[in-house]
Amino acid sequence: MKENVLIASGECAVELLPALGGKVSSIRVRGHELLQTPLATPAPRTQTMGFDEGDASGWDECLPSVAGCTVETAGGPAAVPDHGDLWRVAWDVVQADATSVTLRGACFSLPLTVERKLALKETPKGWELKADYTVTNTGSHAAPWSWAAHTLYSTEAGDEIELPPTVTKLRLEGSGGERLGKGGDTVAWPVAKLARGGETDLRVAQAPDTGIGDKLFAGPLAVGENWCALRRPSAGVRIRVSFDTTATPYLGLWICYGGWPERPGLKQICVALEPSTAPVDSLAINGPWSRTLLPGQSFSWPMTIDLERL
To answer: 52, 105, 235, 267: which has the fewest Cβ within 10 Å?
Structure first.
């Protein structure tokens, strides 16, 4: 098992940690780190620890659920831990060269295996990091699943989140101190009302001492609403994430400016742009978004991160 894998193109480098959940630990452009840095020294994970007990950094894959939950299956109840299985397990390196790498990780709560290929190339605008995913049911009974890209981009006050202009409202999953309301509420985008009066422009990243930590969802999104972006002037880039809304029709948005973890110590200062299969964090909450794979069945989907020079 390799400790790390590096792919690079010109002034852009991407580092992965196969042994630690296949994590993308670093995306650097011209020396600027674009991902949330570790809150603790990266170390092996257990099957039951909370995500806040780890380094809570970089880019992980949340599957088969974001929230810890128990789901009923034909094989009996399955207990899915916080932020899913995949960030906790070592992934195998299937293929690696100078500009691309394919890793494979296996869940333990449900009989699911995920393969993710990352390919990096320079473009006229900057760099393109293309991710291609396939999830497969390797078991003998049907398995429910959901996925979200848990990509934590570091921010500074004044950085700006962009969503398609047709997106005017979001579903609130949770809000630290209920500043935006209660889970399940509808929140206006981009200017939202605060639960205790006043309003806030959700597009604009705030300072770390504001203690903000909000999780929201957009969708289901139409074909033309298949993107989101984060402008980072100090790093000289606009991070544009695009995805297939027929495969992953929802977008999770985690904005954290010093508001999490709730324990003492370092806090996240980041925005997560999370293409998702569901508009909720828990696999146990069923709806028209719910998905099941039969034994031997697979499902594939793409995500592209364009790092555009400003």
So the answer is: 52
Is a pLDDT exceeding 80 seen at residue 7?
A: yes
Q: How confident is the model at residue 3 (pLDDT cuts 50, 70, 90)?
A: confident
Beta strand pairing call for 298-309 and 126-137? antiparallel
- Tokens, residue 124: 């006229």
**CA atoms of 305 and 129, how far apart (whole Å):** 5
In the 3-class helix/strand/coil scheme, how is 25-42 assigned residue by residue? EEEEECCEECECCCCCCC
Element housing 72 (H / E): strand 69-73
Contacting residues for 269 by C-beta, under 8 A, at least 6 apart = 36, 154, 155, 156, 208, 256, 257, 258
Determine the Cα–Cα distance for residues 96 and 102; give it in Å rounded to an integer.
6
Hey, what are 107's tokens?
């869940």
Structure tokens at 84: 């899913």
Length of the chain counted residue by residue: 310
Neighbours of 190 (CB within 10 A): 17
Answer whether residue 86 shows pLDDT above 90: yes
Beta-carbon contacts of residue 197 (< 8 Å; ≥ 6 apart): none
pLDDT at 1 exceeding the cut of 70: no
Between CA 221 and CA 279 the distance in angstroms is 11
Q: What is the dihedral of CA 38, 180, 81, 292, to 10 degrees?
A: -120
Q: Are 307 and 122 in contact (CB under 8 A)?
A: no
261, 268 Cβ separation under 8 angstroms: yes
pTM of the model: 0.97
Q: Give the Cα separation of 28 and 11 in Å (integer).
A: 8
Torsion from C-alpha of 228, 102, 23, 68, nearest 10 degrees:
80
244, 302 Cβ separation under 8 angstroms: yes
